[in-house]
Amino acid sequence: MASIFCDGACSGNGTRAAYGGWAWAFWPSLASGEPTYYGAGKLKTIANGCPVASTNQRAELTALLESLRWAAAHPEIKLTIYTDSMYAINCTSKWGPGWKRKGWNRGNGSGEPLMNLDIIKPLVEIWRPCWALQHVRGHQTGSGPEVHGNNWVDRAAVAAARGDPIISHSAAAVVKEDVFALDIPTSPVVQDVIEHVPADTGCPVKAVKKIVKVADVKQADIRRWFG
User: Fold this and answer.
1) 3-state SS of the chain: helix, strand, coil percent to 5?
2) What CA–CA distances, in Å, run from 217 to 27, 65, 167, 191?
3) Is the whole-model pTM more than 0.85?
4) Which terminus of the chain is less hemmed in, N or C, by CB atoms within 10 Å?
5) Can you give the residue ranges of every domain in the chain?
6) For 89-146, how does the pLDDT look when each residue is reduced to its tens digit (9 = 90+)?
7) What H or E segment, with its residue span, contains residue 208?
8) Which alpha helices (H) appear in the chain, and where do they start and end?
């Protein structure tokens, strides 16, 4: 069974200066060595056109959502998705569907608002029971596939939050979002993996969005262009 591990990270959780990141990684079987594919990026600070604080919960939810988006694009792969966040699991497969049936409220008369619905709603819509969501304890020491996979994405999420490059020597990789590069070649292969930043960002450069295959682009070049 193939496996995806995902994790979120947030520095300064609960403060105005907080910043976060997310990461996921795919292994075709048990997690060992470098992943075959991975994705990571900074946590978005705008939701529905409004500023939103970075938190651990939003980072964990985003990591799981990005994992499911990749899984949805590869329906032929049977896999288990591992996360160390029971909150993310419950929002996706337990509480979330109930909130949806109740019109996206708790339905208990408390009037307490639901948080993070901008991420939870798409999670509920995209998740399918054929994708098993498995809880794994975070920050483990020792060895084994679960330890390796969780620690790999933990490091990647922390790096993404800081804006540091995430280097994989795997056969293919998803270059993290929100990494900007100036001198990007215009060959068809490379052009396929970049998109223009929306005009309202005021940023004249391009953002990396899609899959880069080492068969087409060398890792050394990826590091040079996007690192």
Assistant:
1) 35, 25, 45
2) 21, 27, 14, 11
3) no
4) N
5) 2-174, 179-227
6) 999 999 999 999 999 988 777 768 899 999 999 999 999 999 999 999 998 888 899 9
7) strand 206-208
8) 56-72, 86-93, 95-101, 117-126, 145-162, 188-191, 219-226
